[in-house]
Write a structure and sequence with these properties.
Blueprint (H helix, E strand, L loop, with lengths): L7 E4 L45 H8 L3 E11 L14 E12 L5 E5 H4 L4 E5 L6 E3 L1 E6 L4 E5 L21 E6 L7 E12 L13 E4 L11 E3 L5 E10 L7 E6 H14 L9 E5 L2 H6 L8 E6 L4 H4 L7 E5 L2 E2 L3 H8 L7 E8 L2 E8 L15 E3 L4 E5 L2 H7 L5 E4 L4 H5 L7 E5 L7 H10 L2 E8 L5 E8 L1
Antiparallel strand pairs: 1-13, 2-3, 2-5, 3-4, 4-8, 5-6, 7-8, 9-10, 9-12, 10-11, 11-14, 12-13, 13-14, 15-16, 16-17, 17-18, 17-19, 19-20, 21-22, 22-23, 23-24, 24-25, 25-26
């Protein structure tokens, strides 16, 4: 039996006030601005004399722990009722605190963590490990597809971590899991890399990207967003999930590869959102039947399931049934590796695919596109409303096509207010408000905030189901 199926897959949500346990999931260009540090030669902790430090675990711990921070959040919990605005005679609301970990990735205050750690938070605070100083944090970007988020605090000369190369990390290599779960001094556990390219189906998103590093280093609730480091103290992953029957560590933990983290952080800093390139085709893991039909018994790769007509892959000559074995000369072992490597590229990138077709090797160069179907780099166009307690942005062209709608405004980062009281979820798209359609988020926000009397909201939920809600505002 597959050992993964014997565990309850749960995220490492920290223990919060009134809550316990972990949350169950049922996501290449140079940039301006802050620069991430790669390699020990450019370590931001140059005041440490590495030659005088003990080898192995102690060295890695001393280098990495100052860069791991405690993150605490305050969120508003509301119960759904038939009332639209803040006054709710039949419902109730309250403040809930929770916590997690994060990793400082630049000296001027950029901090990476898991999206689920800060999801829905009204207030986010960061406490440094070295001096316990607390800072208010703002969200720079969130990527549910990889479960990553980037925060910013106003501070300088911080002990930023050094990025290692997760591509060269090997199974069997020693690693440390570093977290700051309960605002204590950073905790460190040791283990080895058990596997790479793990897809455990916990990211519930339209475009999930899972290619986890699996480790037996002990990871527990509160360590979400912490660092997985090698024996040089370099970041090789962001700790994200555990496999557990109880919500506590039971033998396996999972981390997002550092190379993917670095690319997404750069995108957030420059554009405010992830620049994800799409080839216009779907892939799936290889089956024994496919391997036999292709004469590839024992081979590895990702099978092309479908190809979008007139899309980049189709124009490059890729066909359904082809098997992707390399992306720009990087060997593709399975679908998880395929998705990881593809995530390193931005729209407009030309990517070389090596495929097997009926036992013959085929080369194809694909120009990746964005969610709108072109090669442009898209800047985040998000408008926030404190009254409504959410962020709003126009639905992408790909989302409009997927849900067969002509216009709509997507809601994200719901953190209280009327959007939460209606029971709406992140990713919901409002298509009509009182019979009116919208192309600009500002217009919808203005009408929502000023609405009185009978209110009708139509839309599509994140699962694709249509809904109509009727309320009475005053």
């Amino acid at each position: 039996m597959n050992i993964m199926k014997t565990f309850l897959l749960s995220l490492l949500l920290p223990l919060g006030a009134g809550f316990a346990g972990a949350w169950l999931f049922s996501r290449q260009a140079e940039v301006s601005g802050p620069v991430l540090t790669f390699g020990a030669a450019n370590s931001p902790m140059q005041e440490v004399n590495l030659k005088e430090m003990p080898a192995g675990f102690v060295k890695a711990s001393r280098i990495s722990t100052p860069a791991v921070v405690f993150i605490k959040t305050v969120s508003t919990v509301e119960y759904r009722s038939n009332w639209f605005w803040d006054f709710d005679p039949f419902g109730s609301r309250g403040q809930v605190s929770s916590s997690g970990s994060g990793v400082i990735v630049s000296k001027d205050g950029y901090i990476v963590t898991n999206n689920h750690v800060i999801q829905g938070a009204d207030k986010i605070s960061v406490v440094l490990s070295r001096n316990k100083k607390e800072y208010a944090a703002r969200v720079i970007g969130k990527d549910p597809s990889t479960d990553l988020a980037l925060l910013k605090i106003e501070a300088g000369d911080l002990p930023a971590i050094v990025f290692g190369n997760s591509d060269v990390l090997e199974t069997g290599e020693w690693v440390l899991a570093v977290g700051n779960p309960f605002n204590l001094t950073s905790t460190v556990t040791a283990g080895i890399v058990s596997a790479k390219g793990r897809n455990i189906n916990i990211v519930n998103n339209q475009f999930p990207i899972e290619s986890f590093i699996q480790t037996d280093a002990a990871i527990n609730p509160g360590n979400s967003g912490g660092a997985l480091v090698n024996l040089n103290g370099e970041l090789v992953g962001i700790n994200t999930a555990i496999a557990s029957n109880t919500g506590s560590y039971s033998g396996y933990g999972f981390a997002i590869p550092a190379n993917m983290v670095a690319k997404i952080v750069k995108d957030f800093i420059e554009f405010g959102s992830v620049q994800r390139g799409f080839p216009g085709m779907s892939t799936e893991d290889l089956s024994n039947a496919t391997l036999q039909n292709q004469g590839m018994e024992g081979a590895e790769g990702a099978r092309v399931g479908s190809v979008i007509e007139d899309g980049p892959a189709a124009k490059a000559g890729i066909q359904a049934g082809d098997v992707v074995v390399k992306i720009d000369n990087r060997p593709v072992s399975n679908k998880a590796f395929y998705e990881e490597y593809l995530a390193y590229y931005r729209p407009g990138s030309k990517v070389k695919f090596t495929l097997m077709r009926n036992g013959t090797e085929v080369q194809a160069e694909v120009t990746l596109i964005n969610q709108e179907g072109n090669t442009a780099l898209l800047r985040r166009n998000v408008v926030s409303s404190r009254v409504l307690g959410a962020d709003f942005q126009p639905a992408t062209q790909q989302e409009l096509q997927k849900y067969r709608i002509t216009s709509g405004i997507k809601i994200d980062n719901i953190r209280g207010g009327s959007m939460a009281s209606m029971g709406l979820k992140d990713g919901t798209i409002i298509t009509r408000f009182n019979g009116k359609t919208y192309s600009k988020a500002e217009d919808l926000i203005s009408d929502l905030e000023s609405a009185r009397g009978r209110i009708t909201i139509e839309g599509v939920n994140p699962g694709g189901g249509a809904f109509t809600y009727n309320f009475y505002g005053y």
